[in-house]
Amino acid sequence: MTTLPARKELPPAYEPATVEGRIYQFWEEQGYFQPRIDPAQKPYTIIMPPPNVTGELHLGHGLEDAITDALVRWHRMQGEPTLWLPGEDHAGIATQNVIERELAKEGLSRHDLGREGFVERTWMWVRKYRSRIADQHRKLGASADWSRDVFTLDPGIVKAVRTTFVNLYRDGLIYRGLRMINWCPRCETALSDLEVDYVDVASKLYYVRYPLVGEGGMPLPAYVVVATTRPETMVADTGVAVNPADERYEEKIGRMLLLPIIGREIPIVADDAVKTEFGTGAVKVTPGHDPNDWEIGQRHNLEVIIAMDRQARMNDEAGPYTGMTDEEARAAILHDLEDEGFLDHIEEYTHSVGHCSRCKSVLQPIPSEQWWIDVRREYEPGRSLAGEAAKAVREGRIRIVPQRFEKVYLNWMDNIRDWCISRQLWWGHQIPVWYCPDGHMTVVVEDPGACAQCGSTALRQDEDVLDTWFSSGLAPHADLGWPGDTEDLRYFYPTGDMQMGYDIMFFWCARMVMFALYNMRHLGPENEVPFRTVLFHGLIRDANNEKMTKSRGNVVDPLVAAAQYGADAFRFAVLTGAAMGADQRYQDERMAAARNFANKLWNSARYVLMKLESRSVGRPHPRDRDAFAIEDRWILSRLERLEGEVDQLLASYQLNEAGRAIEEFLWNDFCDWYIEMTKVRLNAGDERPRAVLAHVLDHGLRLLHPIMPFITEELWQALRGHMEAETPNALMVAWFPKSAGNWRDGAAEAAMEHVIEVNRAIRNLRAEKKVPAGARLDVYLQAGGHAAALRETAAATAFTSRVQPHVVEPGATLPAGDYAYARIADTEVALALPRVDSGAERARLEKEIGEAAAHMGRLEKQLANDAFRAKAPGHVIAGMEATLAETRTKVEGLRERLDVL
Ligand SMILES: [Zn+2]
Ligand SMILES: [Zn+2]
User: Fold this and answer.
1) Ranked by mean pLDDT, which of 158-172, 321-335, 496-510, 727-741 comes out on top?
2) Ligand 2 mean position to 451 CA, how many Å?
3) Torsion angles phi and psi, residue 506, rounded to 5
């Protein structure tokens, strides 16, 4: 096995661009992303939500990679055979739209190419873009097993899709039925309810007079006024409906009306679905063009007339308006109604209109033959797709994180409607149903040679394709080889975690659960589930908390951000940006702060490596605890405490908190305090810190690796040469630190915290007194119980706070001079001030007292104001009162100093 040659010397600054590609290639060449199947060990598996093959990774994918890769690397470092299985989605309608737009630029439509030519062209495009998506994941450090990469149109998935379809069909769960569907005239396909965007549209409500019919079919002067937003559909009216409880129309129910212009007689029916408060309480019924009217028509046996074709053009049923677009027909019909005195009046009206979520066209509801999945029908006694999917979550066999989404999931599942799975597209899984000239249906997995009923070989396959979510809904088991009985399926199924944006909970999560519980039910309740836990992450909004959209022009490309700040900084920033399930804002400052953290770590690691020179060091051993200095025992104890915290935080999916805890430890405890304190010790010939520095850096890099994989690997490669212990060839396959508790030392931690606080106080006093940075002052520490710790760390205090510390008894007499005082617990800090010009000092103190007194005056006045007190929140008032008390103490202190001048 080759190793990654450590660089002779690390450059002074961290340059992600020179590190990331080289490191990733090394990992991939070593085969670290491919798990070894070991029946003795429990695997960890996670399936990548397959991005649409249509394009680029967006910020959401970047966040997904950061979350998943952190989990995957953490599990891998714990020795579990870990599989992150990547894939790409053929994304039926989205991809077809992209190719159609390309064709349009050449003046072509898909019909010019024909189905085969169009599909071939799409494949060419897919081959080009698929590898690009994988490369984008690589740039973000995703340790996915590319040897198992799955495309949702791979032969294996085709087989899984067809097998599922055929089984559902044989169990009576798939049926073909005429239903009112959402039709996009632009995309020329049916859409599921989830693919419809409802937008409030300012429109008009047209009131039209429908005359009553008298003897011999003659129109009477009396009429019923109906209100409609779509007068162009009146050519297809087959009735008028009123509410049976509406007294205004009681007498008229059952009578006939004459449809204006068209002249067809239509009945007045009574139906509970009619709202008396809408318009006049009488509505036209157009079963061919409205889902509610469809239902009314079904109940009253009204004729279905379809007056528009699938591009929303009026057809032969529209009489004089044949051939017009829907908008042209509306204008012409309104004109004619007006002319003939049928238009009563027009009102402004805002209502919600369904639009295609892909192309934004206004949808036309039309009745159409489609394929459906009956999600409530039982395929075994007591078992339906929706029922089982709800039960698995209710029984806790599938856990939802954060838990609040459980209610959303269950509510949807409990109210779910049949799923329309056919799409009138060319790109996708063509429905495995074949028709013979006699209309027999053959529903099989493999292309049939002849009709199953009559043996005819003149077969025609159903032209529709399946909804894209049908194939991605099979992801966990189909990606692992189902319906084959593969080693991968047996070993890696069910998967561990699954994660996605909460916005695709119904599209994807719900369908995966339904399909898995059906296809994998032979494994029994515990093991049929597709995954044990599903994590819903939030959305990333822009800095102003707006949703990122192409039209707003505020989209951030994760690859651009990663190139600018480094992939590690990008991962750290988005991972720590929000708790699981919560939205976050994208802020450049957070990216820059994460980059600063990487630089800080780099510099500190360089210091450690420099101090190790050409030495190899062993790990500090707990049995030698007493031989170590208090700083050593403190940092080792803190490290172990951190390890326990990180373990618990990662296990409960609080990745953001884990990231913050590691950063705080490395930045504050390790870099700012421990490393600084070792400088003077090493200079003085104290050898003990070297092993501690190496050990803490080693563990720190291991802990941080899942979140910031590149920089930690690069630094660790440089460090491992200094380790006496045998190490694996890469940090990514090294063990993850687990707190053994051997170094836990509450006394050392408490003592060092005190020392740090004392140092902070000294620095604050220096700043407050405006002591020149270079001045080395005496400081007297009148310590109680902490005297020993302060004495032991005196040299470090001298070095890091640039003072000469003297630890003395409480109440000891100090040499004559001026002092600045601070009190930290039982330690009185007295900083000897340089001699000052008493005149200038008096002026300075008086000015400071004046400013503080003015501030107090303002606070007092505000706090005395009853109106303000009534309105301001409690914490604001409490804060002001605290400030006032502090300022008062400060002024007293300043006055005392003024007195002794
Ligand atoms: Zn559309
Ligand atoms: Zn036949």
Assistant:
1) 158-172
2) 5
3) -80, -45
